[in-house]
Write a structure and sequence with these properties.
Strands 1, 2, 3, 4 and 5 form a 5-stranded antiparallel sheet that branches. The protein has helices spanning 21-33, 49-60, 81-95, 101-109, 135-155, 171-176, and strands at residues 42-43, 71-75, 116-123, 159-163, 183-194. It is an alpha+beta fold. The two termini are 32 Å apart. The protein contains 6 helices and 5 strands; from the N terminus they run αβαβααβαβαβ. The chain has a domain at 37-77 and 113-196: NADH Oxidase (3-Layer(aba) Sandwich). The structure holds flavin mononucleotide. Residues 35-36, 38, 162-165, 187, 201 line the site of flavin mononucleotide.
Length: 219
């Protein structure tokens, strides 16, 4: 029996009622179906207002040590995409004074793609909250929030992608989004209707991502 199977004598999954099993299968199905769909393959329609609220509520269900709420999303509506394109082009100019017009144009176009575009920002302010919560936990909380958003978007029938890029390190981007000194822009969340579906990539087998700890011998 592998570590991932259970015998009849053991509970199959602590806290899960047998009558819930169809929902377990449903959850597994949507988790497995989530895959990156690049923004160039995402088109309108994107999530409507109710769906956007539901996505934010899913994000808010993420584990959050000390209830710091150490992350937030900033929406970039379609009317602001031209301005974001300008920021991307400026960011490229900041790091490469010799960037060609074509490269600047490509950087600019990246802002236009997905119908829903959110910037994820994580707060590293040491004063935040009653107890100190390290950066790694804040970042992990943000990762959980994003995954909740991606999974719910998948269940809603949308495609999604996280995008990053060097523009996130640019001073002009920090200024454009009026980020506080301790805030770090982590990635963009892109959601929309899938124009061209692709097969889900092979996932790592459980054995590759799991081991059982053997305590060191006591001397
Ligand atoms: C924080 C983060 C940022 C990412 N940024 C980019 C990006 O800028 N461009 C890109 O092509 N893929 C980006 N990816 C997507 C990964 O390349 C993608 O998840 C990977 O190809 C695995 O595919 P899957 O999500 O379908 O499993 C990013 C992923 C993460 C987690």
């Amino acid at each position: 029996m592998s570590t991932f199977e259970s015998s009849a004598a053991e509970p199959r999954c602590t806290g899960v009622d047998a009558s819930m099993e169809p929902s377990v299968a449903w959850a597994q199905e949507w988790i497995a179906r989530r895959q990156t769909v690049l923004p160039k393959r995402l088109a309108a329609p994107g999530p409507d207002e109710d769906q956007r609220l539901a996505l934010l509520r899913a994000a808010a269900a993420a584990p959050d040590h000390g209830q710091l709420v150490p992350w937030r999303f900033i929406d970039i509506p379609l009317t602001a995409r031209e301005a974001l394109g300008d920021v991307f082009a400026q960011a490229l100019r900041e790091r490469d004074a010799n960037a060609t017009q074509e490269q600047l144009q490509q950087a600019h176009e990246k802002a236009r793609r997905a119908p829903l575009l959110w910037l994820l920002v994580v707060n590293g302010d040491p004063q935040l909250g009653a107890e100190p919560v390290p950066w790694r936990e804040r970042l992990l909380s943000a990762g959980c929030a994003v995954q909740n958003v991606l999974l719910l978007a998948t269940a809603m029938g949308y495609g999604s992608a996280l995008t990053s890029g060097k523009a996130l390190d640019a001073t002009c981007l920090r200024r454009a989004f009026a980020l506080h000194a301790n805030e770090v822009p982590v990635c963009f969340v892109n959601i929309g209707s899938v124009v061209q579906a692709r097969p889900v990539r092979a996932r790592p087998e459980p054995e590759r991502i799991f081991s059982v700890w053997t305590p060191p011998a006591v001397s």
